Amino acid sequence: KAGVTQTPRYLIKTRGQQVTLSCSPISGHRSVSWYQQTPGQGLQFLFEYFSETQRNKGNFPGRFSGRQFSNSRSEMNVSTLELGDSALYLCASSPRDRGDEKLFFGSGTQLSVL
Amino acid sequence: GQQLNQSPQSMFIQEGEDVSMNCTSSSIFNTWLWYKQDPGEGPVLLIALYKAGELTSNGRLTAQFGITRKDSFLNISASIPSDVGIYFCAGQRGAQKLVFGQGTRLTINP
User: Which residues, in sequence order, are bridge partners of residue B35?
Assistant: First the structure.
């Protein structure tokens, strides 16, 4: 089974721009979660999508949004980028069987905002 | 909200030494997971624990689900250079989102 695929691997943007990151989950996984990780910080939960619906949301401003398509692929968008948005953005998929959340992570998208 | 206290924050050891780290919470969890993250990569699941008192091994790694259900432990025996990375614990209650610890950064001197 192929793992979680995230594209692009690296991105460089400038302040004020917007960015879209893509995630393809493991085949058969219906849940996709997004996390932000900054140097020295833990994993900050952004949101979770399940069957095209946002099921959980972390404590991030409205500039961060996401969506999930019928094939479970997910995108997240960050508008009006700020310097502090520079981070590794991780996508994780889970079968969410019986609510069990065993997350499988992609390699991430490293976003640099200049 | 729920928080996991992971310790130590960092470890500097010699190759061949054993490693111990732990995760504690004020809340009860019914699932504990341990992940390892290499630089520039996403975390990889090492061990999953589902029952209080459970002891599970994966090669040189052994993890335990604490009896109180409020803590978990990870041990690495006979460390090697490729063990370098950040180790995260994560806990889950019911069908809620996973809660992650802040990570333990492991550095190994050859």
Answer: B45, B88
